[in-house]
């Protein structure tokens, strides 16, 4: 270990020139370090582009969800209005429709009974 303060390839630290006990540190930059900085800048640029694309997609999906929520609210309001009208219609007309269904069922049963009686002969 020639340099105990070496942090990474390309960077090394040493004590200040005017005193060995000083808290100041000098940094020497290796020429190969520029390539690493350029590579990191490219990676940061790509990450920024990805983050912008994610932001755009998130905004699009948020708008889509807001539209879907509004559509759902409108559909719920329509169903509620139709249920209210149906209930008013049932109250206004009375329960005669139940009587009509029962009479139809009895008539249908009677017709099937007669048909089965005459079909045996």
UniProtKB/TrEMBL annotation:
Keyword set, alphabetical order: Membrane, Protein transport, Transmembrane, Transmembrane helix, Transport
Main location: Golgi
PROSITE patterns in UniProt: T_SNARE (PS50192)
Subcellular location: Golgi apparatus membrane
Transmembrane segments: 98-116
Record region (Disordered): 1-23
Mode of membrane association: Single-pass membrane protein
InterPro entries: T_SNARE_dom
UniProt protein name: t-SNARE coiled-coil homology domain-containing protein
Biased composition (Basic and acidic residues): 1-11
Residue ranges of domain T-SNARE coiled-coil homology in the record: 27-89
């Amino acid at each position: 270990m020639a340099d105990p303060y070496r942090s990474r390839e390309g960077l090394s630290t040493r004590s200040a020139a005017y005193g060995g006990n000083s808290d100041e540190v000098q940094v020497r930059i290796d020429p190969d370090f520029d390539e690493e900085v350029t590579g990191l800048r490219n990676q940061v640029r790509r990450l920024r582009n990805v983050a912008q694309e994610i932001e755009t997609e998130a905004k699009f999906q948020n708008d889509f969800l807001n539209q879907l929520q509004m559509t759902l609210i409108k559909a719920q309001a329509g169903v509620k209005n139709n249920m209210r009208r149906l209930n008013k219609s049932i109250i206004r007309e009375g329960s005669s429709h139940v009587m009509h269904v029962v009479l139809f069922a009895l008539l249908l049963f009677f017709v099937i009974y007669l048909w089965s009686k005459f079909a045996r002969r």
